[in-house]
């Protein structure tokens, strides 16, 4: 590079010229050019990156040798939280048994600063009134946070939320009931689906007859 070379950064998604020299051409204050006098480095800094910042950025060097471009592909990875075994959104346990919920914080470059557990919007990490509640968080890649509740009763039913500092919260609804009641709940859901299917099958011949 020579002293007369002009450095520009361009966002290829919309061909927006973000900077030329030390001047930025965007109202987004997250974008800034970092350059030290006498250095050949012209760094485009984006603070508080967001998903929409994904894409290709072009560094253009314009000078006596013509135009030289260097492309940088930026991929934003957003940390995610999910509770193991909560694909259906529900978790059934027998009264008097143990609730074991494991929250996985994945795709995070650094462990979250905290992981809080909530029962019906009430934080229970440091619960002392009920007792029998334990939260153990193991930082790593991924970070795991385990919520354990012993000697469960019906009041422990409800929505459980895993909320980490760097992710959207994850939810699961826990049903605590007598063993026979759990089977009855599942059977009622199955029967409801069967009745709906039978109604559809009954309607099809009626519709077909009406169309004749």
From TrEMBL:
PANTHER family: DEFECTIVE PROBOSCIS EXTENSION RESPONSE 12, ISOFORM C, DEFECTIVE PROBOSCIS EXTENSION RESPONSE DPR -RELATED. SMART domains: IG (SM00409), IGc2 (SM00408). It comes from the Eukaryota. PROSITE patterns: IG_LIKE. This is Ig-like domain-containing protein. GO terms for cellular component: neuron projection membrane. GO terms for biological process: synapse organization. Transmembrane segments: none annotated. Residues 1-75, 79-173 form the Ig-like domain. It comes from Photinus pyralis.
């Amino acid at each position: 590079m020579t002293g007369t070379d002009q450095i520009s950064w361009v966002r290829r998604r919309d061909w927006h010229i973000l900077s030329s020299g030390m001047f930025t051409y965007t109202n987004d204050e997250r974008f800034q050019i970092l350059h030290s006098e006498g250095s050949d480095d012209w760094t485009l800094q984006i603070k508080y990156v967001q998903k929409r910042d994904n894409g290709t950025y072009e560094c253009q060097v314009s000078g006596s040798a013509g135009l030289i471009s260097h492309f940088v592909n930026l991929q934003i990875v957003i940390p995610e939280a999910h509770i193991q075994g909560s694909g259906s959104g529900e978790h059934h346990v027998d009264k008097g048994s143990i609730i074991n919920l494991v929250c996985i914080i994945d795709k995070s470059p650094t462990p979250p600063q905290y992981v809080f557990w909530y029962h019906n919007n009430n934080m229970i990490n440091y619960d002392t009134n009920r007792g029998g509640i334990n939260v153990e968080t193991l930082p790593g890649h991924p970070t795991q946070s385990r919520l354990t509740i012993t000697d469960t009763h019906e009041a422990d039913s409800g929505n459980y939320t895993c909320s980490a500092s760097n992710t959207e919260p994850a939810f699961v609804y826990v049903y605590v009931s007598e063993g026979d009641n759990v089977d009855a709940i599942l059977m009622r859901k199955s029967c409801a689906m069967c009745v709906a299917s039978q109604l559809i099958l009954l309607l099809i011949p009626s519709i077909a007859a009406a169309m004749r």
